[in-house]
């Protein structure tokens, strides 16, 4: 019941959304750090991958709350 309440909005929904953004940001930062170590920099392909990783991680974390 609580997951349904969080999905409908309110403070709980806002906190879950904030947590999802932070999860996405953390995933992107980890990938960026790995790319800088391996490639000695960030390319356009890496930037595209960062967007995809951050989005996927955020959506998965939101889906886990609803599940």
Give the overall form.
elongated
**Portion in helices:** over 70%
Strand residue percentage: under 5%
Low-pLDDT stretches are: none
Mean pLDDT: 88
Q: Enumerate how many helices there are, as a single number.
A: 3
Major β-sheet, in short?
A: none
Euclidean distance between termini CA atoms:
11 Å
The tally of beta strands, per DSSP, is 0
Radius of gyration: 15 Å
List SSEs in N-to-C order. HHH
Fold and architecture overview:
This protein has helices at 2-7, 10-39, 44-66. The protein has 67 residues and is mostly helical. Helix 2 packs antiparallel against helix 3. The model has no long low-confidence stretch (mean pLDDT 88).
SSE inventory with pairings:
Layout: H1 2-7, H2 10-39, H3 44-66
Concise synopsis of the structure shown:
The chain has 67 residues and is mainly α. The protein has helices at residues 2-7, 10-39, 44-66.
Keywords:
single chain; 67 residues; mainly alpha
